[in-house]
Amino acid sequence: MPELVFFSGTMDCGKSTLALQIEHNRSTRGLQGMIYTRNDRAGEGKLSSRLGLVTDSVEAGEGFDFYAHIVAHLSAGGRADYVIADEAQFLEPDQIDQLARIVDDLELDVFAFGITTDFRTKLFPGSQRLVELADRIEVLQVEALCWCGARATHNARTVGGQMVVEGAQVVVGDVNQPETVVGYEVLCRRHHRRRLTSAAARAAALSPDVLPVDPAPVNGTPAAG
Fold first, then answer.
1. 172 among annotated binding-site residues
2. N or C end of the chain: smaller count of CB under 10 Å?
3. Tell me, what's the pLDDT at 29?
4. pTM recorded for the entire structure
């Protein structure tokens, strides 16, 4: 039976790499897929991985109708054996409904990839709708790591290396960006709650000690050298 599958995880855990791997595995077996994405780091009409892999895709912008696009493609004599939708967190709830309709009415597998929560730990509307409708939810097993080495579970937005918790929900950026621009960093829950990014942790480690290095003399006795 065809399924709507939601592959979720934090940034930097390999979602787009897996999407490209699924495309490769199926295309080498003679299957043809329709690939969609939105706000990819490589630009419009691209699905890219941080490993350097990239392929062409259809840009699913605001108001894009997945179901109508697939039906038009098939009606024109095109072929579609499955659908891949990357950056699905940016999609509108109605667009997720369209993906579900593709599974139910056209009997095609749909593989959606996206992060679940934003930099404020709030659900993206598209991800929320996927959680509500998906036949199966797969949490990626390639764990992204916080700077402390613990499993990263939250996405943090940074400006100048400092975590911010206000602003528009969608601001396109990436991890490992220069500290002077808007970027993102994956953190464990503890450090996300404390707003302690890697840059902030380095700054704290380099700050002067609270206690003096050489204690003051006691009862007139000089401190040991």
1. yes
2. C
3. 94
4. 0.73
